[in-house]
Structure formats: C-alpha cells, structure tokens
Amino acid sequence: MGLVLGLAFVIGLAVGLPIAVTMGLAGLLALVVDGKLSLLSVPQRFFNGINSFALLAIPFFILAADLMTACGITTSILRFTNTMVGHIRGGLGHVNVMTNMIFAGISGSALADAAGPGAVLMRMMQRAGYERHYAAALSAAAATIGPIIPPSIIMVIYALTDARVTVAGLFMAGIVPGLMLGAALALANHAISLRRGYGAAHPRMPWRERGIAFLQAVPALLMPVMIIGGIVGGVFTVTESAAVAVVYALLIGFLVTRRLTPALVYQAMLQTGLVTSAALLIVATASLFAWLLTLLQVPQTIGAWIGTLTTDPLAVLFLVAVFVLVCGFFLDVLPAVIVLVPVLAPLADQFGIDPLHFAMTIVLNLTIGLITPPVGGVLYIVASVSGLRFERIAAAVLPLVLAELFVLTLIILFPQLSTAVPAWFGYTR
C-alpha cells in the first residue's frame, strides 16, 4: 500500500494534477490495491478532516479581510506607513514591508497579501524607479509575513493536526518571528537600495501629518489588537474572534468609511465561499493521505531513522528544517501542514523539543516555500498580477529568501524567540 500511495502521489504531482485531486486519488488507489480496508474510509476521513468547529475561523478571517479591503483600509494603511518609513533610503520598499506586516494582522494569508496591498505597492515602486522584478520580488517576500503574524489561517490548520499546541498559543508564538521577518526584509531592502540607488532618502514627514495618518489608519490597526487582545484576555475563542472581526469590518465599512455596500458584501461573501471551499477540499483529501501515512507507521519510521543519526534536539530541528524546506519546494502550505505535521510532530516529544518551537520552525519553513520555485504559490500570484515572467521574479527574490532563512536559523537556535510570548500568557507547557 505504501508503494502505491507514494507512486500515485509523485505521478500526480509530476503530471500537474491539482494537489487535492492528487492526494485523494493516491489515497483511493492505495486502499483499492490493499483491499483490507473498506472504501467507506474515504468519505469518513474526508468528513472527519473538516468536521471541526475551529475550521469556522478560516472563512470568517477570509471574509473579514475581504470586507476590510472593500472598506478602503489599504489606502489608509499605505498613507500611514509612508509617513513613518517612506523617508528612509529605499522608502517604498520599507512601506511595502510595513504595510504587509499590518495587513498580516487582518488577513492571515500570504496569498491575500500578495494579491491585495502587494499588487498596489508593486506598481507604486515601479513608478518610483524601482526595477520591476525587484518590486515584484519584494512584494512576494513581504507577503509571506501574512501567515506568521496572527491571525494565521495556517496556524489554525496546524493546531487541528497537532493536539500538543493550541491556536491561541501558536498565534502568540508567531508575534516575535513575524516582527523579525519584517525587520530582516527591511534590512535587506535597505542594503539592496543602497547598492542599486533605489528610493533616495528625503526629509521626514512632520509629526502632525503622521498623527493624522495614524488616526485614519486606526480602524485597520485596531482589528489585530482586538483579535489578539480578546483571545489573550479570554473574552472569546479563536473562532469567535474571527466572527467578531467580521462584525467589526461591517461596522467600519458601513458606519466609519461608508464605502461598503450590499453589493460589495455579496461579492466578499462569494469570494470567501470560493476560497474556503477550495481550502476545505484540500484539508479533506490531505486528511485521508495523512491517515494512511499514520497507518503505514511513517512517523515511527522517521523517528527511528533520525534517532540513528543524532539525539541532539538542535540537530533534529535542523534536519527537520531541511526536510520541510525541500517539501515546501513542491507542496503548497495547506496540504504540507496536514500531511507533514502528523508525521513530524511526534519528534518534538521524542527529542524533548518544545511543541510551539517545533511548530514555528515548520510554519516558517513552509511559508518560505511560498516564494521558492517550482511551486511558489505567492510568486505565481505576483507574476500574474505584474505580468512579469515567473523565472525572473524567482531569481530576483533569492536575496530576500536568504534573509528569511537567516531568521529561520535564529528561530531554531534560540527557542525563546518563539516561546517567550506564549509563556508570558500561559500557553507553554
């Protein structure tokens, strides 16, 4: 059964089948060839994979982000970040990074950030004299902050596949790595801008203008504060916080900015339904695939193999990081989390690694995979929006990938970077 499962999966990827179809067909073929398990296991696993109250957070977060975008908050965030960091050398690049950091606290998705503020900033950078492929590459790299700074759709899925961690704990664990990722990209942008002569420095904006821009951006800035504050304060659960975010976005759109209309709400709900249904199809088929891997005792096999190589937790983390990074070259984040986490997460207990530290290593790794070929989902979105060739953007993004890998190395070497904040709020063991 294992051979059939592996071959079917590899062949499906090689011929370009959608990942959901690949995993579903591979699982079905493995069951048919094995003949020992009922085919009823397929719909049962599909159902069990998506039968979770916590998954309701996904459509709510997506809808909240779409509604906030329809409210016109992207413009106010851009104005605010430009007044704060636009005067520095490579200013629009810094604006790009900072805007994506703020938007990460609203959308929780790299793809949404790349298609939303990333697309706008890409065009702004090109008009300001930045090389087109670099502007696209920076927009793609900055969008990867989306799944790290809470809320994060990927972290919701991770917590469902690993009972050792909670969604709230993962949200807290992502704060420092997310800020570090933004700082690393800003430093890389500054160095590249100095070398290539992008975005000359100019006088700072007066504090009065900064204050006005801040007040205009307050509705957008309050959303992540409300979500995280409500969760930490025990006011509501993660799923409830996502629902509250939708209500907040509706109030902002209808009462504050007054740009939201019933037609825009309908379009946002329609888009949310399309994105959510595609995501849940992947979750369902990946659940079947992961279940079969567990039956084949793949986690135990990997644990035993790594145990023959080393018992040092740090070395284990680096081995896992390399393995996950390679997987991220070929798998999108969502199926990778569902398939890899049940296989790799037991290593945290086996080698005495903090589950939150282990989780952040995997999540950050897979997020970097979003901007690495040949799959590179964010790169494809940026290429589609910009009209540039995928290969040229992939080449331009390499220095920024190295900056993100440096952050990943720091996260692995210093567990406190991902565990300190959760510990303050009582989310660690």
Protein model, in words:
The protein has one domain. By secondary structure, the protein is mostly helical. The chain is 78% helix and 0% strand. The model has no long low-confidence stretch (mean pLDDT 88).
Short summary of the structure?
By secondary structure, the chain is mainly alpha-helical. The protein has one domain (40-424).
Features:
single chain; mainly alpha; globular; 429 residues; 78% helix
Record the SSE blueprint.
Elements lengths: L1 H13 L4 H16 L6 H10 L6 H14 L2 H13 L5 H17 L2 H6 L1 H11 L4 H12 L9 H9 L5 H7 L1 H22 L10 H26 L5 H19 L5 H34 L2 H12 L3 H18 L2 H12 L1 H5 L4 H15 L7 H10 L3 H7 L1 H16 L2 H9 L5
Mean pLDDT: 88
Output the structural class.
Answer: mainly alpha
Strand content: under 5%
Q: Roughly how much helix do the residues carry, as a percent range?
A: over 70%
Contiguous uncertain segments of 5+ residues: none
